[in-house]
Amino acid sequence: MAKYLIRAKIVVDGIVEKHDIVGALFGQTEGLLGSEFDLRSLQDKGRVGRIIVNTKVQNNRTQGEILIPSNLDRIETALLAAMIETVDRVGPYDAELKVVDIQDLRIEKIKKIVERTVELLKVWGKEKTPDLKEVVRSIQEYLKAPEPISYGPEGLPAGPDVDKSDTLIVVEGRADVINLLRYGYMNAIAIGGARRVPDTIKNLANTKKIVLLVDGDHGGDLILKEVLRTLKVDYVARAPLNREVEELTGKEIEEVLNNAQPVFNFLEERVKSGDKEAELLLQIQKKLHKIREEYVESESISIPVNVVESAKNMQGTLESTIYSADWSEIKKLPVRDLVAELESMEPGKVYAILMDGIITQRLIDVASSKNIKLIIGARIGKVQYKPTDVTILTYNELFF
Fold this sequence. Notes:
- This protein is of the alpha/beta class.
- The chain is built from 15 helices and 21 strands.
- It folds into three domains: 4-106, Alpha-Beta Plaits (2-Layer Sandwich), CATH 3.30.70.2690; 149-294, 3-Layer(aba) Sandwich (Dna Topoisomerase Vi A Subunit, Chain: A, domain 2); 301-399, Cytidine Deaminase, domain 2 (3-Layer(aba) Sandwich).
- It has helices spanning 18-29, 39-44, 74-84, 105-126, 132-143, 174-182, 199-205, 218-230, 250-258, 263-272, 276-294, 305-314, 338-343, 361-369, 395-399; strands spanning 4-12, 52-58, 61-70, 89-90, 93-104, 149-151, 156-158, 167-171, 188-190, 209-214, 235-238, 261-262, 296-298, 301-303, 319-323, 329-334, 352-355, 358-359, 374-377, 379-380, 391-394.
- The longest helix has 22 residues, at 105-126.
């Protein structure tokens, strides 16, 4: 939560959009007080929050309110407020910006806490002593085992978030899924007692990261080897020695999953210990991962290996690359300049965008208007609408 909120009024002698005002704030204050106090840099470091602009047009002029959350200290926040008042143009029009208030959000929050405390005390005083039978009944309902859903043509026991999550926990049976659901793990799916890995799980592994969670006994060893022969696995997790997944507590499940090993590390350790079968499984897993990396399939869009490698190398650079339909590079540029560049280009010229940044609603809207088919980014921001003609992938989906 931000500590302060800067409120400012702006009047522009012409009709402009909200993003024009935000652009003026960034552009006209850049470097004014040095690189460390650059507005964009402060946002990247989380010291300044998302800038909100509300506008209305009256008599051919744009009037608006600007809200800037700040996690800076009091002096720095006041300095930031004074700095934005230097903005005197938006696009081709003269503008006047005036800070009207700097609100201490912590004080406001404390006020609300005090008011709510008084309300709760009033209600508490009116409450009667609870009925013990009702309390027991409520506890019984809470402890009642949750029911898994039936997933895929094989009717596999699974949690409700299998489709939504980019990571799946693959377990042996229904009881394992139920225990994971009990402790809030909604992305589990069971092999279901099959002698081989069901095709449904193999298909899910094409687009999702797989964590294989098995029992800590001989039976768990057998399941582990069978799965590793046929399914691309990313991480291996095992219950404690001679314990089963279905009997673990929430704390134990958390610890087991936190200690999950990358599949290659897990198998390499076994190879070093003299396990000859582990050497074969390691080769199989490398082959399965290689097949996955050759092409990432998403809604009939094939992504070449060199583009996937470019995405891996791009992480942390805040750069972007624009591609044509034959995957030739059109241009490389900073993420902050991407939207403006796309807006200036002809529809149909760009096929895909690769970027080390957040995929925003504005970027998606521009991509749709320019007939761009694919956006790959670090993560997706607060998006309200996804056009059907634009495919959106995150790094997690691309790499796993």
